[in-house]
Specification:
The structure is a single chain. By secondary structure, the chain is mostly helical. The chain folds into four domains: about 20-65; about 80-150, 2-Layer Sandwich (Dna Ligase, domain 1), CATH 3.30.1490; about 155-235, no CATH class; about 250-385, no CATH class. The chain has helices spanning about 1-10, 15-65, 95-105, 110-120, 140-145, 165-175, 180-185, 220-235, 245-260, 265-275, 290-295, 305-310, 330-340, 365-380; strands spanning about 80-90, 130-135, 155-160, 210-215, 350, 360. Strands 1-2 form a two-stranded antiparallel sheet. A two-stranded antiparallel ribbon has the order 3-4. Helix 9 packs across helix 10 (about 265-275). The longest helix is centred in the first third of the chain and has 52 residues, at about 15-65. The chain is elongated. It comes from Georgenia faecalis.
């Protein structure tokens, strides 16, 4: 115990300078605590001030928020009057339609149309096209009008199976009111209408049999190019090589003109293949009435003796092989039949009843002669049917 007491007595006392440094540290620490306290008080006062301003603003603005209704998009009462033509392009959104119709004077505001568009579940089905609408319509009525096909202003052109190019030109001119000369001039520019090189510059057979819809302002070149594109698309879908397209269309056009009943497409296509390959009985001659009639400018009936004697490239009684071009626009069924005809040894066929379309096929010439006799008897009983 005395040793410990003696040891503490022996330890030196802190110097005056050390005591002064300790005092300065205590003062600095105290000043920091005071600054933090002042900062905290300032923050609290600021928050209280902001909260007070927010409460005051609420009470000032509350009457405006509760007493005034939200503004509504301007709308016409309808039903409207006059007329205006608008074009809805592919991919046009409802918002874009509203802006377009507002600019055209059909609806009062884009907002009104947008509201009506959203409210109509069928609105997403509005199709591209040209529409004739009233001016100053109620927005909901404008949406309904765009959904009604009766309001579409379109040029519709139908090309039936078997039609020749000249018939297509006349139909286009009649429907569009374009001069026939303009249509023919467009057809005379193979590059402009997208005619493939294998057509040899002649568009016969390349105007696909189908129904087309165009904008009222369409030109002849666009119409013809669309028809050619449809033919190319069909051939591509059936994997017809480019080098074989012209031959396929030519065969199919003959099938189209020779067949009465759909069930005979394949058999007529097989007759064509067999005749082209035959070197003994028909020597590669198709002997098709349809090509003979095309060559002399006739569109139907039975060839006369004069027609059969006319020496032109389409007279397949005189010339072996295929004619130089198709003889009309084949339908898809005829093209498919040519691509994959059924097996058979048929070289001859004749339609023995021009009313019912009954057609007899055979590979035997004597039997074919008997079938022709049956046709002659039918013609004697129906004398007006052989006029071409």
């Amino acid at each position: 115990m005395s040793e410990l007491f003696d040891q503490k007595l022996a330890e030196p006392s802190p110097s005056h300078s050390e005591q002064q440094r300790r005092a300065e540290r205590r003062e600095r620490a105290q000043r920091r605590r005071q600054r933090r306290k002042r900062t905290a008080i300032a923050v609290v006062l600021s928050l209280l001030l902001i909260a007070g301003l927010a409460v005051a603003a609420f009470f000032v603005l509350r009457p405006l928020l509760t007493d005034r209704p939200a503004p509504e998009a301007t709308d016409f009462p309808g039903p409207g009057s006059g007329s205006v033509e608008v074009v809805i392009e592919p991919g046009t959104s409802g918002t874009e339609m509203g802006e377009m119709l507002t600019e055209a004077g059909v609806v009062a505001s884009p907002g009104a149309f947008s509201t009506a568009f959203t409210a109509n579940p069928a609105a997403s089905g509005i199709q591209p096209g040209t529409y004739v609408l009233l001016e100053e319509m109620a927005a909901a009525d404008a949406v309904a009008a765009l959904l009604d096909p009766a309001n579409k202003s379109e040029v519709t052109i139908t090309v039936p199976e078997g039609w020749r190019a000249t018939q297509v030109y006349e139909r286009i001119a009649a429907v569009t009111q374009l001069p026939l000369a303009d249509v023919e001039a467009a057809a005379a520019d193979p590059a402009a209408i997208g005619l493939p090189a294998e057509a040899g510059g002649n568009p016969e057979g390349w105007f696909a049999a189908a129904t087309y819809s165009f904008q009222p302002s369409v030109d002849a070149t666009t119409i013809l190019r669309t028809m050619v594109e449809q033919t190319v698309s069909t051939l591509d879908a059936l994997a017809v090589p480019a080098a074989e397209r012209q031959a396929v269309l030519t065969k199919a056009s003959i099938v189209e003109h020779e067949v009465f009943l759909a069930e005979d497409y394949g058999r007529v296509a097989r007759v064509i293949e067999n005749r082209l390959a035959d070197t003994e009985q028909v020597n590669g001659r198709l002997q098709m009435d349809s090509t003979v009639l095309y060559g002399v400018g006739k569109s139907g009936g039975i060839p006369t003796r004069s027609d059969l004697d006319d020496d032109n490239p389409y007279n397949t009684y005189l010339h072996p092989g295929l004619p130089p071009t198709p003889i009309g626009a084949p339908g898809a069924a005829a093209v498919e039949a040519v691509i994959a005809p059924p097996p058979g040894d048929w070289l001859y066929f004749v339609t023995v009843d021009l009313d019912s379309g009954e057609t007899l096929f055979t590979g035997d010439y004597a039997e074919h002669q008997a079938n022709r006799a049956a046709l002659n008897r039918w013609l004697e009983e129906h004398p007006s049917s052989d006029e071409g």
